UniProtKB/TrEMBL annotation:
Keywords: Aminotransferase, Decarboxylase, Lyase, Pyridoxal phosphate, Transferase
Residues the record lists as N6-(pyridoxal phosphate)lysine modifications: 286
Any GO molecular function: transaminase activity
Protein family (similarity comment): Belongs to the group II decarboxylase family.
Cofactor(s) needed for function: pyridoxal 5'-phosphate
Name of the molecule in the record: Aspartate aminotransferase family protein
Protein origin, superkingdom: Bacteria
GO biological process, one term: carboxylic acid metabolic process
């Protein structure tokens, strides 16, 4: 077996070589590279095949089979790259190998995540008394928030959920918009609310929940709003809906996977009134450009989250703000450290600059697409550009030509019954030149397609 130092240095130098060349890679792996992934399909070896040979295979076959999301020309989903400081922090965490359940398992992690939590509330301007659980994804954040919401509402109705379970409990109804993210539907299904107990509110032409069509809500209701609709980037009318919900004792959760970051920039008016909600989820791995497994669930009343996620035991007592009492995991990576590193390195100004620069680039893309004769279907209030060519077939031809080129990548969606294309500018690496080249390619494709 090779020594630890050599193996880790080998991994590091391969990682560096990958990063050095990420801008030159096809943005989506070639058919040959994808075919070569079959090379991983070995039988489980009886005798170990060695550290360096294993890392070599991972790099030789795996690296060419990756999507260049860590480069500047990937515009798919709402995917950011990794800030170097956040990636470096993750590498140090790997060396520490501390479980970050609580102070006892990793004092450094506990201290840093506490600071990261405070800074997150400051930069998003959410109530300072809120609790922040660092979790894997916005999907998990919404799941945890709905767990806390149901437990709290039922408690107020005199039902002890922990003791009595859901059977026979008062019905809790979910109210959300018809363009809520699929992670909301998933959380509703997984938690056993029942899709029949969801009241779906129509959205307006921009993709915002239409507050005038809100059904009757009461203290048995969880209203799920969103900041950053996945196609248009729009946010729901928080001020009106939250005031109506608060008046009757409903719970309001906000899925702000990417849109909440607008609050850290001059675009904060997009999220006007969102700070009055009861809970929020937001990702680091989208717009803050931290590596994956980076998200947060936040509740206004910390006791709601702590009571729902409580996992103290005689062998593992801890403080209420231990991360195992704020999220689903017990053993866990110190996910908040990469967020801390990104916030410390960028500062408030750097985060604002990242958000504002990518919003500006999205506006440049939208202008270029209009000039090239495409229909831009959204107002481009944040970093999302939704557009189409003349008909569904033409739109798909453009999409496939871009994807097959290996020069750029973005995806498709259905918007108001028609195929549309989504460009998301979320990466710190994306430059004006990347965006100009994208526009040139799309303009040429449209010319040759018409
Ligand atoms: C609005 C919205 N909510 C939730 C999610 C899910 O986030 P995650 O991938 O972190 O689970 C996304 C991801 O695209 C999103 O855009």
């Amino acid at each position: 077996m090779t020594g630890e130092r050599e193996v880790i240095a080998d991994g590091d130098s391969r990682a560096q070589a990958f990063l050095d060349g990420v801008g030159l890679r096809p943005v989506y792996p070639t058919p040959e590279s994808r075919q070569a992934l079959e090379g991983f399909d070995e039988s489980l070896p009886r005798h170990g095949l060695g550290d360096q040979a294993t890392i070599k295979l991972l790099d030789d076959l795996g690296s060419p089979g990756t999507v260049a999301t860590n480069g500047g020309r990937y515009f798919g989903f709402v995917v950011g790259a990794s800030l170097p400081v956040a990636a470096a922090a993750e590498r140090l965490l790997l060396a520490w190998d501390n479980g970050a359940a609580a102070y006892v398992t990793g004092p450094s992690a506990a201290a840093i995540e506490k600071v990261a939590a405070r800074w997150m509330l400051e930069i998003l301007d959410l109530p300072s008394e809120s609790a922040v659980g660092f979790t894997t994804s916005a999907s998990t954040g919404t799941l945890i928030a709905l767990i806390a919401a149901r437990r709290t509402l039922l408690g107020r109705l005199g039902w002890d959920l922990d003791r009595r379970g859901t059977s026979g409990a008062p019905d809790i109804r979910i109210v959300t918009s018809d363009v809520a993210h699929i992670s909301v539907t998933k959380a509703v299904r997984v938690l056993g609310f029942g899709l029949e107990n969801v009241a779906t509110v129509p959205s307006d032409e921009f993709g915002r929940l239409d507050a005038s069509k809100l059904p009757a809500i009461d203290d048995h209701t969880i209203v799920v709003l969103q900041s950053g609709e996945v196609n248009t980037g729009e946010s729901d009318p928080f001020r009106d809906v939250i005031a109506a919900a608060q008046a009757v004792g409903a719970w309001v959760h906000v899925d702000g996977a990417f849109g909440l970051w607008a609050r850290a920039s001059k675009h904060r008016a997009e999220t006007d009134g969102v700070d009055a909600a009861d809970s929020w989820t937001v990702d680091g791995h989208k717009w803050l450009n931290t590596p994956y497994d980076s998200a947060m669930v936040i509740t206004r009343r910390s006791e709601d989250l702590v009571a729902a996620m409580q996992s103290d035991s005689p062998y593992a007592p801890s403080s209420p703000d231990a991360q195992k009492n704020l999220s689903l995991d017990f053993s866990r990576r110190a996910r908040g450290v990469a967020i801390w590193a990104a916030l410390r390195s960028l500062g408030r100004d750097g985060v604002a600059e990242l958000i504002e620069r990518t919003v500006d680039l999205a506006a440049v893309v939208a202008d270029g697409l209009r000039d090239a004769g495409y229909s831009v279907l959204n107002r481009v209030v944040l970093n999302q550009v939704l557009f189409a060519s003349d008909d569904d077939e033409g739109t798909l031809r453009i999409l496939h030509a871009v994807q097959d080129s290996g020069k750029f990548w973005f995806g498709q969606t259905l918007w108001r019954g028609k195929v549309a294309l989504r460009i998301s500018v979320s990466s710190w690496r994306t430059t004006r030149d990347d965006v100009d080249q994208l526009i040139v390619m799309l303009a040429l494709l449209r010319q040759s397609d018409s």
